[in-house]
Every structure is written in structure tokens, then in C-alpha cells.
Amino acid sequence: MFWHWNGMDNVQIKSMARFGLIGKHIDYSFSKAYFSKKFEALNLPFTYENFHLEDISEFPLLLKENTDISGLNVTIPYKEKIIPYLDDIDKKAKNIGAVNTISIDRKGRLKGYNTDCYGFKKSIQPLLKKRHKKALILGTGGASKAIAYTLDKLSIEVAYVSRSKEKQAKFIYDDLSSGIINKYKIIINCTPVGTFPNTNQCPNIPYDGISKGHLLYDLIYNPEQTKFLEVGKRQGAQLCNGLPMLELQAEKAWKIWNKTI
User: Fold this and answer.
1) Sign of the dihedral through C-alpha 147, 151, 152, 153
2) Does 182 share its domain with 100?
3) What's this model's pTM, rounded to 2 decimal places?
4) CATH number of the domain that residue 46 is part of
5) What residues form DSSP beta bridges with 137?
6) Residues 79, 185, 227, 252: which is the catalytic one?
7) What is the model's pLDDT at position 28?
8) Do 129 and 239 belong together in one domain?
9) Is there a single domain that holds both residue 143 and residue 102?
10) What's the pLDDT score for residue 208?
11) pLDDT tens digit string along 81-121?
12) What is the pLDDT of residue 27?
């Protein structure tokens, strides 16, 4: 054991700790490079690994074979499916219905949190104008739940768009018209459409309804400017990709892990 100054207060931490990301096909992920660089900068002997799971049912075996893991991030497609495997869940994550951060205490108990909502709020707030009163959320997965929760807290009306008719979706893509797009001055892509290497793809919406009054936000960060954002730029819209949100949510996760390591 040794003492480490984490920028907030002195905490006694393990001389070695392992962290990681669980998801499916996650070689592209931002998290491993981000935390590896962070640990190196802080001179911490910690590691961060990607754990590919073909199915969430493989999660208990992962923990059994890696008993020294101190914390995990969770990404597509397991932000909702991970919840039954946790011992406890933070109130905010419970209200959202999705988890993207897990802390593991010294007794092996798992607690779930959602730091996506924090990262999204902090990244979008500086961009909001009075005209931004209604938002379209493209996609209905785990990430979209944190986005909807945050927008609701910011008193912004939300409508989901899905590929097929489902209870929570107000629209399917075939419903969308230029007029509908024009009414929703915030459009957020919570789908993986446009992620590297499929950079020539974008959500199927009527882009001619986008104006200079629009804010387009894409949770994707690779490529830096997706086709979704590129087309929005040609229409004069304000743009933001997912990198600021990712960095902010990662720092929030690090603060959570610091409480248990």
C-alpha cells in the first residue's frame, strides 16, 4: 500500500489495481487509451483493459477469473443488461435505467452508476440557446436513456426516434418530415450509425429540415466529424461530437473508483 494524492484528498490505494471496459467489439474504444495515459501521467501502476463479451451471461466468469479488478466501464450493448448482475445501483442510474460505470469494493460488491448523464450535461449546457426547447433523440438504447434523463432535468422536451414502433418512441424514421425536423432544434444521434469504419453512413432523417438554429450532437467521436455532423454543418447547424462527453464521464468514473481503491 502507498499514499497517493489524487487532486482532491489523500487516499490509501492498492499498489496495483486493474480497471477495464466491458462491451462487444470494443477495440475502437476511447477508454483504454484515455485511462492508460491518465495512469501514466499520475505515475500510477494501474492497468486498463478491454473485455469483449459475446453475451452478458459471460460477465460472472469474467469476474471469477479476474478477482483483482477494481472498477469497470460499460458500453454498447450492455448498459441495461448489466443491471441484474449488480449488488447495488446508484439512485440516479436506477432512475435512468442504464449503467456505464461499476465500482467493486474490497468485499467484491458491485455498485452501478451512470456518469453519461454528467458528461452529457456538462458538454451540452454551454451550447444551449433559448430556442433549444425540443430535442429529437435518435435511438432508444442505454446511452439514449441518460440523454433523455438529462434533457428532462434541463426542461427540454424529448421525443425518441426508433427503427420500429415501440412504446417509448414517438416517431419511427419513416414518420420524419422536414417540418418535424424543423420543430426540434436539438437532434442527438445515440445510435452507432456512422462509427468508424462505416464513416459513409448516417441516420436516415430529412436533413433539409435542419437550419442554422439547430444543434446537432453526435455521441460518436470516431471519426471526429461524422457524416451526420458533416451534413448538418452544410445546413449551418451548430455541432458537437461525443469526445467532450466521454472525457467528462471518464473523469466522473475515476472519482467514483477513487472511493473504493
Assistant:
1) positive
2) no
3) 0.90
4) 3.40.50.10860
5) 160, 188
6) 79
7) 77
8) yes
9) no
10) 97
11) 999 999 999 999 999 999 999 999 999 999 999 999 999 99
12) 83
pLDDT for res 15: 62
pLDDT tens figures, 138-178: 999 889 999 999 999 999 999 999 988 876 889 999 999 99
Q: 243-258 vs 116-124: helix axis angle to the nearest 10?
A: 140
Q: Is 227 helix (H, G, I), strand (E, B) or coil?
A: helix
CATH number at residue 171: 3.40.50.720
- Annotated active-site residue 79? The verdict is yes
Those residues whose C-beta lies under 8 Å from the C-beta of residue 101, and which sit 6 or more positions away, are 71, 72, 73, 74, 112, 113, 114, 115, 249, 252, 253, 256
* DSSP character string of 37-48: HHHHHTT--EEE
- pLDDT for 44 equals 94
Q: Are residues 130 and 226 in the same domain?
A: yes
CA distance 190 to 5: 36
Which of these, 19, 48, 65, lies nearest to 257 by C-alpha position?
A: 19
Count of C-beta atoms within a 10 Å radius of residue 168: 13
d(CA 92, CA 184): 26
**Strand bridging mode 169-172 / 157-162:** parallel
pLDDT reported for residue 6: 45
Shared domain check, 195 and 84: no
Q: Which of 30, 49, 48, 31 is nearest to 39 (CA)?
A: 48
DSSP string across 112-165? EE--HHHHHHHHHGGG--TT--EEEEE--SHHHHHHHHHHHHTT-EEEEEESS-
C-alpha dihedral over 166, 167, 173, 179, to 10 degrees? 160
Q: Provide DSSP, 46-76.
A: EEEEEEE-SSGGGHHHHHHH-TTEEEEEE-T
